[in-house]
Each structure stands twice: as C-alpha cells, then as structure tokens.
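Input sequence (399 aa), recorded before submission:
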Amino acid sequence: MIGKERTERAEGTERMQKAGKRGRAWAVALAAVVRKEVRQTLRDRRVMFLLIVAPLLQTVILGYAVDFDFENVPTLVVDLDRTATSRMHARRLLADHTLQRQPGGASVTTATAELRSGKAAAAIVLPPGLERDVLAERPAEVQVLLDGTDPNRAMVVASAAARYFGETAEDLLRERLARAHVPPPPVIRAEPRALYNPGLETAPFMMPGVMTMLLVITTTIVTAMGLSREREMGTLEQVLVTPIPPLVLLLGKMTPPLVIGCFDVFLVLTAGVWLFGVPVSGPPAVLAAGTLLYLVCTLGIGLLISSVSKTQQQSFLAGFLFIMPAILLSGVMTPVQAMPAWLRMVTYVNPVRYFIEVLRGNLLKGAGFADLWWRLGALGMIGVIILFVATMRLRKRMA
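Predicted structure, token format:
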C-alpha cells in the first residue's frame, strides 16, 4: 500500500515537472516569436506609419471634418410681400446665424433653380399679403423650400423656421388676448436638459466612433497582410516546421500590434481630449479592459483572414469586406435601434458595436463595470471564439 502511494506520488511529481517544462518551453517560444515580430515591425516603416502616425492624422482630420452642428446654412429669402412686417420677420429669422441669407431669390422659380444648382440649401417664401393678414389677425402661411439631398441640414433649417414662426404666432396670440382683456391660456413647456453632453456637440459623440473605426482598420488589415506576406516570402513555412504550438504562434504575432494598438488608443484619446474636449468621465480600468478585449477581437479577425488567404491582395480585400459591414452595423453614424429587427440580430456578433458602446458609456456617461459588464463579456466571448477558430485553421494548415 505504501509502495503504491509512493508510485502515485512520483508519477504526480513527474507530471508536474513535465507540465513545468512544457510551460517554460512555451514561454521561451512565445518570447522568441514576439522578438521576431517586434524586429520585423520596427524594420517596416510603412507598417509603423500605418499603426502609429496614420491613426493620429486621421483622428485630427475626421474630428474637424465630421460636424453635425450646422451654422450659416445658405438660405434664400423670397419676399413676395415687400412690407415692413415681412422684412422684420426675415431679419429676425436670420438673426441667430443658423441661416445665412444669400443674394437672389426674386421669385419662387429662381429660388428653385438656385436650390437645384446647389448655391442654396433652403428658401423661405414670405407670401404676398403677409402684413395684411397679420394686421387683420387672419392665418398666414410661410413656405419653406428645402434641399432634401442632405436630410440632416434640411431638418436643421426646418426646425429653425418652425421654432421662430411658432414663437411668433404665440406672441401674436398673447397680444390679441391682452387687447381683449382675456387671460392667456396655461402653457405647458418642455425644458430639455442634456445630462452627458450639455452642449450637444458633435465631437464628443463622434470621437469614440472615429477611434473604433481607426483601430479596426489598422489592426485588422495590418495583421492580415503581415501573415500573408510571410506566407508569400516563404518564412511562415519555416516557422510552422518548428515545434511551436499554433496558439503560442498566434499569441506571439498578436502581442506587438496589441501593444501598439493600446498606444494608439492613448494617443488618439489624448488628441480627442486636447483638441475636441472629449470628456473622460468613467474609470480608466473599464476603458483599458474594453480596449484590450476589442484589440484581441480585431487582431484575431486579422489572423483568421490571413489563415484563409493565400496572398496579401486576398487578405486586403477580405479585410475590407469585413470592415465595411462591421462599421455600418456598429451604430457609429446611425443608432442600432433604428435598424430592422432582422439586421439588429447581426449586430450582436459585431465587436465594433460593443466597443463603441463601451467608449461612449465610459467616456461620456462615466459608466463602470456594473453598467458595461455584458458588453465587455460579449467582447471577451467573441475574441475567444475568433482565436479558437484561427488556431484551428492554422493547426489544419500545419497538418
């Protein structure tokens, strides 16, 4: 009995020693692959430019270029009444500089032609008899012609015109009731209050989306093309014949771009805070965890693409075939809730969607792990599945 226990103890010790040796061997192999990838990445200036300089330049350019805060919208005023009242309303309507008056607009026909040519985005038509109808306390209609090719700008113009003439009609009604010594009716007013972006500025809303798009483009494409380039050069086959496990090889290839991606996030976030006033309201640990999990997903997708592609050109095209739908179905520009129900189901497997929600929740709302845990969990699950599939593909190729 004692001899049997000693034998089992010796076998357990031997297994532990073998596991330790295997773990040390894997650590040595991982370090060797990481050193190789770091040297190869640093030697390629084009890759370094794409990974570090390009995201910063694109952040600055897109941050200034993407702006939904419309001001000075070119507007024609077609004054068919030509009275003091019509001129007063035209002047007051343009006073807040949301609309900018353009020369021309002698008639509705010429205004329509200006809208067709793109010289103006809207036209305010003040009808003949406007002053007479106002003095006679009769209803008057003002027409607003909009260029519907740009719905966002058209909605801004329509909202500005409706708000001004609505307030004007309310003031005229109160004056009429006051002259008749009739108390004005009670009015219910809505007082909007923006909690997390008080100025309703575009930059704090768009910068998380810009950061997400830049990361998925750079990390996925560069990773996919890197492995394909090694296959074309014949160096990948030399690595595959070594006793390095596929998972260790993939982790080694992911480590340098993972570190560079984290640095890119810090660089882009610093530019967003400094140039565009993006707030950092939430715990940095949530931001770090979300970034790490997201980069695991994008780098894993790049490795998966390269494992099924034979050339760099195929990897590049396959990368963009993934990136474009991923961005469109992420909620960067339009909310996911506005999509059809069947299309919303596709977004649940899109890591870009979850990272945008993590960034906006953490940076703008100050959300923590308790608020974003299921999005972080979804990123982790997607990343593990992608790495598993990529490892199986690579193991199959080695076999």
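Checked by second reader. The beta strands are 73-79, 99-101, 122-126, 143-146.
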